[in-house]
Amino acid sequence: xxxxxxxxxxxxxxxxxxxxxxxxxxxxxxxxxxxxxxxxxxxxxxxxxxxxxxxxxxxxxxxxxxxxxxxxxxxxxxxxxxxxxxxxxxxxxxxxxxxxxxxxxxxxxxxxxxxxxxxxxxxxxxxxxxxxxxxxxxxxxxxxxxxxxxxxxxxxxxxxxxxxxxxxxxxxxxxxxxxxxxxxxxxxxxxxxxxxxxxxxxxxxxxxxxxxxxxxxxxxxxxxxxxxxxxxxxxxxxxxxxxxxxxxxxxxxxxxxxxxxxxxxxxxxxxxxxxxxxxxxxxxxxxxxxxxxxxxxxxxxxxxxxxxxxxxxxxxxxxxxxxxxxxxxxxxxxxxxxxxxxxxxxxxxxxxxxxxxxxxxxxxxxxxxxxxxxxxxxxxxxxxxxxxxxxxxxxxxxxxxxxxxxxxxxxxxxxxxxxxxxxxxxxxxxxxxxxxxxxxxxxxxxxxxxxxxxxxxxxxxxxxxxxxxxxxxxxxxxxxxxxxxxxxxxxxxxxxxxxxxxxxxxxxxxxxxxxxxxxxxxxxxxxxxxxxxxxxxxxxxxxxxxxxxxxxxxxxxxxxxxxxxxxxxxxxxxxxxxxxxxxxxxxx
Length: 588
Ligand code: ATP
Ligand code: MG
Description:
CATH 2.40.240.10; alpha/beta; elongated; 14 helices; 7-stranded mixed beta sheet; Glutamyl-tRNA Synthetase, domain 3; disordered N terminus; binds adenosine-5'-triphosphate; binds magnesium ion; 28 strands
């Protein structure tokens, strides 16, 4: 199998890239294999996929889903779906529903479904324990002052003047923070680690902030909310996750992840007043997915929806899983793509053509064929009997003989594509032009005789003659033609709306925009083109989601708008590679 290359950035010398090994395994699976050999987790494999329910899942999330759920499947382990809802927010039902639909659509099942906010009480108790152990303190500095005093990688930070508060004072203040005595941002709880650490994340990071805001799950019960680094490890710990897989930007946070759990475990032992040791998962980082012509950021995708630049989160141009679904992508194609790109430790941008390659591979096998004419031109067969209709056999799917044949009506007046006719043909143009003979797929050879024009000089009809002996598409005298074209019988053709899609962004690196400009400058103004087109009558009752290959055009699927508007509406999922377009480009 040959595939287009994915572009790889290179890491600084001396940092070997962990590319997927040829055996199909990768550095994460190798860690797991080793753990299983040494019995580190007693053969258990438990992962989780932890989305924040603040938007729809995108293709980047699919990489993480395929990894976490895929590993659980392969090792007969488990993968939890955990909502990372430590930020207070109210309206989340829509996002939760979509996340679950998308995970299921990809073909995965979660072992347990949890909410990080269900652990708020336990996390609070652990925080109190850290205060007792002298490992956390209440700080009165503002967030701004904290970051000013944090120093730089080469300059140590300045300790907070509140760093040496007594345990009693800290316990009292933290309790009062919780009771709601202080305003938003008035105080924080900070871990007491090392203000000179070369890793800035260890310079007394904030564990809790004050925020008087309602939470969808806990309501107004809490006015202090845990920070990600403090919360995440405990969510993993409570669920007894073995391998906590996250993206590379958290590599520098791993010492903190470990510090928090170690700090709780310090002094814990069976029978001690602190209790048993808590579970300590292993964090592993991998490179996030970036795609050409695509932006993968929930915040920016939300902006596109809010500003009406796209119709919704599931607009067929969106890189969300629901957008891909509506566009006609199959979960199998997305999974095959994720498997192929594998996981590694090098940030890279994958060419979107690679995703399209796997899509075409899958759709080619499963899509019934049909004929559609997108930009119609009338073709009149002068020697064909007036008023006659015949029904010709057409192959439903050459890749699948079991799909059988269907009947396609043929008559005197047809539609062909405007692109399939030239009055003055350019070099190597083998389609219809005056004097030239071509094959109409499944039908007859036709030879162009003349054209009819309107007053303005536009061609309104192309006229031809047909050879009745070529019925079915072959000439008994062995005559050859260089082109086979699709067509529709005009009186039988169905009117449809076809939505032709192109990349949402015009720039390969969609995040590359001039300083001071908005990222939206890279939006493609022609990402959607809506045309009235014709299709053959066999697709008349196609239901939303039904997929076809429209011969010579590409893959299309029925849009759910069909049900609302009553107009059969198709989305172009992906085009076929157009050989003439390539020749034409080369001739320019
Ligand atoms: P965004 O920046 O789009 O909001 P996020 O990382 O904040 O993404 P989360 O909901 O927190 O979104 O992500 C859930 C999981 O999906 C995390 O484990 C995260 O690492 C992973 N993930 C998110 N984006 C990508 C990506 N582009 N490639 C691989 N994994 C990703
Ligand atoms: Mg996030």
